[in-house]
Specification:
By secondary structure, this protein is mainly α. It is built from 1 helix and 2 strands; from the N terminus they run ββα. Strands 1-2 form a two-stranded antiparallel sheet. β1 and β2 form a beta hairpin.
């Protein structure tokens, strides 16, 4: 991609190919960031569930005691 030029009114001077490449790149980065955050949240939730489950097993008393 060529260097972006800013017009006098603050807008970027982009032809369609540059516009498409610029926004596709931005969308990929944004989606990658969101996906990473979602995976991290899912892993944390699974970890918390597992730790809670293990804690309930440790605190449980065997039958008959």
């Amino acid at each position: 991609m060529r260097e972006l030029q800013v017009l006098g009114n603050g807008h970027l001077e982009l032809d369609f190919a540059d516009w498409k490449e610029f926004f596709e790149t931005e969308m990929v980065e944004q989606l990658r960031s969101q996906l990473k955050a979602m995976i991290e949240q899912a892993l944390e939730a699974e970890r918390d569930y597992y730790l809670h489950w293990m804690g309930s097993l440790v605190g449980a008393k065997p039958d008959g005691l």
